[in-house]
Design goal:
Layout lengths: L6 H14 L6 H12 L6 H18 L1 H8 L4 H26 L5 H21 L11 H10 L10 H11 L4 H24 L9 H27 L3 H20 L6
């Protein structure tokens, strides 16, 4: 990240990361599109690390008790399922990292993924049986959710969106699917930042860097709390509609400014 990155840009992108990493609307897609729309410079490697650190802190803090219980062997089975579900996405991330940061970042790709997986999210919420709570999560559920996470490497798909979708198709309740998705996000998001941490230098730790960490962490905690309460009472249709509208808006921008770089 360049030292000249405005702190306000960092705060905006941090809030966007904290909200969209939790909500099923694609954090990576929004973090590509917002700088593209407003002609902001690419935030760079160090800022990516800042956002991952902040979001991982949000998940870790919110579900601290759950992780303590699992590590103390009070819920060792769930810990095993989370480890298993982490492996496919982690391996795919290492193999496809370059494509995820280049080829997959095209706004047209993001628009298509926002629309397609809006329909998939709607179908899972409409036709999923929603009968199993967290305690009834099984090996097959963990494998399905873990494998689905590979698709989240494509901006516009949404990591939380695709894992919640997979959980709903496996018969989990909305709340159970969301909680499993968020617990699964903790090691994934932390690893995404940690693997790049060694590439940073002291000069990268600017005010904008820390603004990104703090804003993404605070926004993430608030977003988790809101979403878990929301899914107890309502369907996911509002997020389906948002994704479709966002896809149409991106498509309009692409057609209106075909030569605009990103």
């Amino acid at each position: 990240m360049e030292d000249a990155m405005p702190v306000m840009h960092a705060v905006v992108l941090g809030i966007v990361q904290g909200l969209t990493e939790v909500l099923p609307i694609s954090s990576s897609g929004h973090l590509v599109l917002i700088p593209w729309i407003f002609n902001w410079k690419y935030q760079g490697l160090s800022f990516d690390v800042a956002l991952h650190i902040g979001t991982a802190a949000a998940f870790g803090a919110y579900f601290f008790k759950d992780w303590v219980d699992m590590l103390r062997a009070k819920n060792r089975r769930m810990l095993g399922y989370l480890i298993l579900a982490t492996i496919p996405g982690g391996l795919a991330g290492m193999v496809l990292e370059k494509k995820a940061e280049t080829v997959f970042r095209a706004p047209l790709v993001i628009a298509v993924m926002l629309f397609v997986f809006a329909v998939v999210l709607w179908a899972s919420d409409r036709y999923g049986k929603k009968q199993k709570d967290m305690g009834q999560t099984g090996l097959k559920d963990a494998l399905a959710i873990g494998l689905s996470q590979i698709l989240a490497l494509i901006p516009g798909v949404s990591r939380s969106g695709i894992t919640i979708t997979a959980g709903l198709f496996q018969g989990l309740t909305r709340e159970a699917a969301a909680k499993f998705s968020f617990l699964l996000a903790t090691p994934i998001v932390f690893a995404a930042g940690a693997l790049k941490l060694h590439k940073l230098s002291a000069s990268d730790l600017t005010a904008a860097f820390w603004a990104g960490v703090v804003s993404s962490a605070l926004a993430g905690i608030l977003s988790i709390h809101f979403f878990l309460r929301f899914v107890k009472k309502a369907s996911l249709n509002v997020f389906v509609i948002y994704r479709i509208l966002a896809a149409l808006a991106v498509l309009a921008c692409v057609l209106g400014y075909p030569h605009k770089s990103f």
